[in-house]
Amino acid sequence: MATKRAPAPAYVCSECGWTSPKWVGRCGECQQWNTVVEAAAPAGGARRVAPLIPTASARPITSIDTAETPRRASGVGEFDRVLGGGIVPGAAILLSGEPGVGKSTLLLEVAARSAREGRRVLYVSAEESPGQVRLRAERTGALHDELFLAAETDLARILGHIDEVQPALVIVDSVQTISSSLSDGAAGMPGQVREVASTLIRIAKERDLPVILVGHVTKDGQVAGPRLLEHLVDVVCHFEGDRQTSLRFIRALKNRFGAADEVGCFEMAGDGIVEVPDPSALFLSHGSPEPGTCISIALEGRRALPVEVQALTVPTQANNPRRVVHGVDPSRVAMVLAVLERRAGIKTSDLDVYVSTVGGVRFTEPASDLAIAIAVAGAVRNHAIARNVAAVGELSLSGDVRPVTQGAQRRAEAARLGYTRVVDDRSGKLSSALNDIRALHLVPQHTGYADF
């Protein structure tokens, strides 16, 4: 009779719990070195879990009440928009973003407005002193008696503050700076982040207490710590923006209570953060039409925004003309220039080409192709396009203008903003789109250049 072969020993990361059938020097999950150790074999063979009497009997899914989970407005409309209409009781929300983008300022505003609505808020600051937070609150007008502040880095003491204050909303800034005595390692290590987050989320579910956690990001933009953190929470939001501009966007990357592609728009001002419910004028230049400009309709989540694409061409004698872009995809610009020269007869190989967007917005989706092509063509021919024209379309290498996602929504937004003509895939070919603009909406700048 053959004996049963003993299972191969498993190796476990002491920081994040990742397992491997063999020893490796670097954890495949948290990327930490020398944390993978051999797991102890279970004593007495395989363990069995004894069944217990359930606390609540299982019910048919058809008998479950379909009433919508009640939501509480945070007072910041753009934040509520991203969350799906408000904060759900017991929800765990993770907000990540680059250092200095304004995460703490936004959440302090959320805490102050919630306090003004009569809900007690506990703001736990593990990175700043109470005096520093008070100075920011004075500058942004976020002072209120129902807003309680605690500067703690120990998880047990934070739980004590929650029992003492009995808040209706808890904000922890940030989860990577909190440590628990139940886990080894320094604060910020994957094991500590997992223990702190799981404890706070358990408290949120047991007490129907919404908890907002601030998360650090790594240099490649990912949330620091174990990937398990994003799986545990109900909502993952990312706060982003260019430091050169005051515009900020908050995006929902995961949302168990609403759409996961909503976007909120904010503007950083001297006295705090300001909502921008209709950012249609932020990415447009003002004044008379200029050669080398074209309006397109971009999609930020479910929100359609007009974006102005600008192009400038300069003759050059260099063997390798310059291609400088900002706010658009450089590879798509190179492709559009090739299609222009091959399919529309607009030569750019002897020109330096500069392409940029207005307002610092990033417009990298394929829907920008047609606007880039029209802007470059206008710059080469020195013709300006009327302000009531918008262009939306993806270019193929054959010169066809292809349809883009949410085309009907983009056209509806363009009509709402006063664009009477939208050039899109209905033109068929790039050359046809250029001819349509030349025949209907072109404002010539007489300099002797050939027409489109």
From TrEMBL:
Every copy of the RecA family profile domain together lies at 68-217
Q: Give binding positions for ATP.
A: G97, E98, P99, G100, V101, G102, K103, S104
Superkingdom is: Bacteria
Q: What GO molecular function annotation could you give as one example from this UniProt entry?
A: ATP binding
What positions does the record give for the motif labelled RadA KNRFG motif? 254-258
Under InterPro entries, the record lists: AAA+_ATPase, DNA_repair_RadA, P-loop_NTPase, RecA_ATP-bd, Ribosomal_Su5_D2-typ_SF, Ribsml_uS5_D2-typ_fold_subgr, Rubredoxin_2
UniProt GO cellular component terms: cytosol
Q: Which GO terms describe its biological process?
A: recombinational repair
Q: Which UniProt keywords apply?
A: ATP-binding, DNA damage, DNA repair, DNA-binding, Hydrolase, Metal-binding, Nucleotide-binding, Stress response, Zinc, Zinc-finger
Pfam families xref list: AAA_25, ChlI, Zn_ribbon_LapB
* Region of interest: Lon-protease-like: 352-452
- Sequence similarity: Belongs to the RecA family. RadA subfamily.
Q: What does this protein do?
A: Plays a role in repairing double-strand DNA breaks, probably involving stabilizing or processing branched DNA or blocked replication forks.
What note about domains is in the entry? Answer: The middle region has homology to RecA with ATPase motifs including the RadA KNRFG motif, while the C-terminus is homologous to Lon protease.
Report the protein name in the record: DNA repair protein RadA
Gene source species: Microbacterium oryzae
| Gene (UniProt) | radA
